[in-house]
Amino acid sequence: MDSAILLKYDQRVPRYTSYPTAVQFSAEVGTAQHAQWLGEVGRDEAVSLYVHVPFCRELCWYCGCNTQVGRHQNTFETYTDLVCREIDLAAAHLSLRPQAAAVHWGGGTPSSIGPARMARIMDKLREHFDFLPDAEIAVEMDPRVISGEDIVTLTRDMGVNRTSIGVQDFDAGVQKAVNRVQPYDLVADAVKNLRAGGITDLNLDLMYGLPFQRQDSFGHSADLAVGLSPERMTLFGYAHVPWMFSHMKLIKDGDLPNAEERLNLFNEALERLHAADYVHIGLDHFSKAGSEMDVAQREGRLHRNFQGYTTDAAKTLLAFGASAISTLPGGFIQNKSAARDYMKATKDGELATARGVGLTDQDRLRSHIIERLMCDFQVDLEKICEEHDIAVQGLAGDMETLNPLIADDLVAVDGWRVNVLPRGRMLVRMACAAFDQYHAPDPDKPAHARAI
Ligand code: SF4
Fold this sequence. Notes:
Helices cover 37% and strands 21% of the residues. It is an alpha/beta fold and 452 residues long. It has 2 domains: 1-19 and 361-452, Arc Repressor Mutant, subunit A; 21-358, pyruvate-formate lyase- activating enzyme. The radius of gyration is 21 Å and the shape is globular.
């Protein structure tokens, strides 16, 4: 893609990890709705589970997660008690005992509360859900705060079989500029311990667009990451939104690469990953050739949820902890974001519901279209509309909004089939936005990251 096209489309668009996106969530959807939708969860297909731990030892200045500095054992103990309580509260509304296909631990730094407390929460989940024998149990890890002993507890006692480590960049200057100093040896040691603990599915995150990043050193970081032989890698673009996260103000605008430099950084890492035989999955994931994700992408079975691209096909996600978002039969529900508010509500014996959105038939149709575009880069609108029993002609206006992308050879249309061309791959979110009924960018109040 040339830089002129990049600059033309370097707009703020949702990441489409859900549709409608979180911007549409409203406080009008409260605990009563949450309880009702929990009661509608069926047993015909296994659910996924998510646990959010909103604590970190210190903040990385690029962080866009819901987290806070937390170091007190008392807080961790109370939080653990209350997550267990929330699981009991939610389970009381379920009309049956669901099967669980996956548990994802995110944050924050899940291991900050300590493996023993994590194991206690896992036991509580097992009390209310029947885990499938091959259930995936994934934990996001910070190599700076996890010991070899912790890893043994997580893998042996909790059954963790998949982990993800945030690397971002191995360059010491970049690490210092974002307040996340973790030399290569520290990460390599963590990887060694994880492998010794039996982890066979490891993901490493790289991030482009950070202050002082240079093409050559970022390429070298990608090579070092590849050398650790992770099964998966992600290549995220840093979203500089200091009006949403005040710690990002510690990163100076002038130290950040511009749009063209961001593209060069991305392309540099992309080349290194391709050279090492990693297959590009969706927008920003990479997987070893022949892996489950690679096969799922080729067979049109790739999915997208709040964790990004996944092979997890569960339609229901029950999420616990501060700010956690559940996908329920009737819509999306988000818990209170501040750990303090979440803990107070749960202590009072209530679901900690903050907001949500109910799904209309149009939302379900458009969610399906957007997910297929994000995963397959092509979509047959006629076929999808048939599945949803909605007339495809209703999408004629949306198709017209694709015209600028078609004129720039980023998208091709054949009847009701839409194809995102290889040249437009990085701008797939712009094609998705054409089918997003709610997307109305407000330049004074930007709510999303840039397209690149
Ligand atoms: S460790 Fe992860 S969650 Fe915590 S501040 Fe850093 S990037 Fe954010």
